[in-house]
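How it folds:
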Amino acid sequence: MKHWLVRSLLAIAVLTIVAALVIWRAFAPPGPLGPTASAFALHNMTVVNPGTSRTSGQNLTVRDGLIQSMAPGDAMPSGSLRAFSGMYVLPGLADMHAHLPPRNPLKLTSYFLLLNLAHGVTSIRDAGDLDGTSLVAQREATAEGYPGPRVFPCGPFVSAGVRKWANTVLLPAPVDAEPTAARLKAEGFHCLKAYDGLTLPMVDALREATRKHGLSMVGHVPEGLTYEQALIPDTQHLMGVADPRAQTADHRLPLVQGWHAVDEARLQAIVDITRRSGIANTPTLVHEQQLLGLASYDAARQSPEALLMPRLFRDVIWHPVTGIPGYRNMTPEEFERTRIAHERKLRLTHMLYRAGAPLYLGTDVQQPFTVPGISLHQEMRLFASSGIPPEAVWTMATRDAGKSLGLAGLGILAAGAPADFLIFRKDPTGDLANLGTLEAVVAQGRLFTKAAIDAKIADYRVHYEGLIFDTLSIQLAKAALRKVSAEAH
């Protein structure tokens, strides 16, 4: 009897270990994509610095993560990648409002990074996550050799009152702004994200504290405050334009509430205030456009962007009835108000451009049907549809963003600048349709061909469709939604 029991326990232990190994293997992502080259030359390129210069017949050399030289020349330099000769070179794109996935068994981070590269996004400003684990996951993926954009993190949300998310620093009083900014700077964060619950004295104190410590201040206009009261130096989502009295207590659809009452006079007032104050805006127009996909969910879940993502997103997280709590069971009136908000934000974005106000392109990735990388292309097209010339859109997404992110030379092509750039067969600054002619991405000096990136994406899609990953990821996503729903209430 004793021997039977021992053998049974051993069998159970072995089966448990085998099952754990099978699940671990099912969740392990495909191996890292290696670069085609990290020290190379390009011959006879047309170098485009959007908004400033366009020079043909240029030879570029790249080494140690930098553009070592850029000069005219007929002879093909040693180490030239002949396949790209005669093409167009442009700075890499920056997503100025992105969110990375949390650190969990699904290990989605490397795929998010790859999707950004696939669409020429070589820098992202990370606008925070719910539990504070996404940056740990990103650093682990990078250490394991997975390529991706440069990440400029904002760290935890800075709020007051009730803690809405675990990744939050609560500000008890305005006097606490200075030590909070000092701590975030010391921890290596690039920016501070102001969030819900802050009073006007707190916002004013944070503005001064971030200036003192060399942090960018981005964020929401806190509920109860208007755009012109808060004057967030880089205001996200065009918040505060609508009357704050139109916000409901449960924060349902906060980015579109009240826009039906925003008239032309209010839009012009915002432009005037922005011009006088010198603040910037990151509108995230793609948020509303993609949110409207919930009205035609069956079609949206089969869209090219949705199909790039694991099924847990399109069938669980973005489900119109049981998905993200703030977007569940939207009514026809709410969809119509979302459409109105979208149209008026497009109008305001164009007006701000005409007034010379700083504008950045961001996506709010992980909102319904907002997918890494491709959503920035959608945002570029939305800026263009508002009446902004394509080359001006490129300027905002490269040089202007690079200047804001503060890394010398980022967003421009010049000797000594970071080697973050894109190679196209056709010039995309005249026609954004030519975004589809991307041939290669150079991120931090490493060149990846678009063909190799696409092949690796295909590997990930096969991985995500595996029976074990697909089944368990759906259950984990449902559990995560239950947790988020409980925390939100």
Notes: The CA atoms of residues 440 and 449 lie 4 Å apart.
